[in-house]
Specification:
This protein has about 325 residues and is α/β, with parallel strands linked by helices. It is built from 11 helices and 12 strands. It has one domain: TIM Barrel (Alpha-Beta Barrel), CATH 3.20.20. An 8-stranded parallel barrel has the order 1-4-5-8-9-10-11-12, surrounded by 8 helices. Bound molecules: ligand PBG. It is an enzyme of class 4 (lyase).
Length: about 325
């Protein structure tokens, strides 16, 4: 017998055979498209995230979502951007029934109904004047975020978004017990059908930098390391995920995605029955955009390669700013 006996290259010889045996396929239905909404004015480009905008609640937003739907991207997650003047210490614009996210949810659900699934991020960093994700208190000359007070406000915010018509609420503040408290509040108000996508394993990551510019939500002092997870820990994600599932989360999430593919795989392996989302965050997006604009990488192939890798690692859905571009590129087939 002539060497070599086994020739894996036979299965790579043409696109047809590669496609026939490919394990992972991306589809526009895999994506949840994050959209920043603002109260009024015209659409505004986000300097830290080329290709992304802050959309005024109105006609321009509706047209953009129409485009998204026409590409097969039928899930969006909304983030509110409000002027500094209306922010306060307890983030009240976040649970104002007439706030920007509530208005956007109403408009989108009235316009698109069941054609569109609307997720609403539940957090307070976009609405507090200090930029932390909850109520800040002082003790012995040190500041801290008051967990239980904050969770009460998240529950209020979640009910407001559910009342506006959100299909899912997505608590992203990493406070202990937030999922249970939100589930209780939703049920108490009759919103049994509103789901919870929990940001379960959300790491304290510098990859959120461009988002914080977009949403003007950077903390004014300190950082988020007392509530978001330590990047050095993978197994701890299993603890967070198990707690969130027990508290009633319908979908769990790992965030960021690209530098945490091992965590995605770990969670999928241990909880194969739990729908798993991965957040391909702002910094991951903007790195690709920056490198592509310099001609260092092929944006189309790199983007599809990254998203495929996130799915291959075990994600069932991917929150990604690349959603519309990727959906457009996928129409031409895969580049692999
Ligand atoms: C709110 C929130 C953040 C992101 C999603 N929800 C920012 C943060 O935790 O600072 C980041 C998303 C991204 O970077 O794309 N807490």
């Amino acid at each position: 017998m002539k060497f070599p006996l086994a020739r894996p290259r036979r299965l790579r010889a043409s696109k047809i055979i590669r496609d026939a045996i490919a394990e992972t396929w991306l589809d526009p239905g895999d994506f949840i498209y994050p959209i920043f909404v603002k109260p009024a004015g015209g659409r505004e480009p986000i300097p830290s995230m080329p290709g992304q905008y802050r959309w005024p609640v109105g006609e321009e937003l509706v047209r953009h979502v129409e485009e998204s739907l026409s590409l097969g991207v039928n899930k969006v997650i909304l983030f509110g951007v409000v002027p500094d003047e209306v922010k306060d210490a307890v983030g009240s614009p976040g649970y104002d029934p007439h706030g920007v996210v509530s208005r956007a949810i109403r408009l989108l659900k009235e316009t698109f109904g069941d054609r569109l699934l609307v997720f609403a991020d539940v957090c307070l960093c976009e609405y507090t004047d200090h930029g932390h994700c909850g109520v800040v208190r002082q003790k012995g000359g040190r500041w801290y975020v008051d967990n239980d007070e904050t969770v009460k406000l998240y529950a209020r915010e979640a009910v407001v978004y559910a009342d506006a018509g959100a299909d899912f609420v997505a608590p992203s503040g990493m406070m202990d017990g937030q999922v249970a408290e939100i589930r209780k509040a939703l049920d108490a108000h009759g919103f049994h059908e509103v789901g919870i996508m929990a940001y379960s394993a959300k790491y304290a990551s510098a990859f959120y930098g461009p988002f914080r510019v977009a949403a003007a939500s950077a903390p004014k002092f300190g950082d988020r390391r007392t509530y978001q997870m330590d990047p050095r820990n993978a197994y701890e994600a299993l603890k967070e995920v198990s707690m969130d599932l027990e508290e009633g989360a319908d979908i769990v999430m790992v965030k960021p995605a690209l530098a945490y593919l091992d965590v995605i795989r770990l969670v999928k392996t241990h909880y194969p029955w739990a729908p798993l989302a991965a957040y391909n965050v702002s910094g991951e997006y903007s790195m690709v955009k920056a490198a592509a604009s310099q001609g260092y990488i092929d944006e189309r192939i790199v983007t599809l390669e990254i998203l495929t890798a996130i799915k291959r690692a075990g994600a069932d859905v991917i929150l990604t700013y690349h959603a519309l571009d990727a959906a457009r590129w996928l129409r031409e087939g895969t580049p692999f």
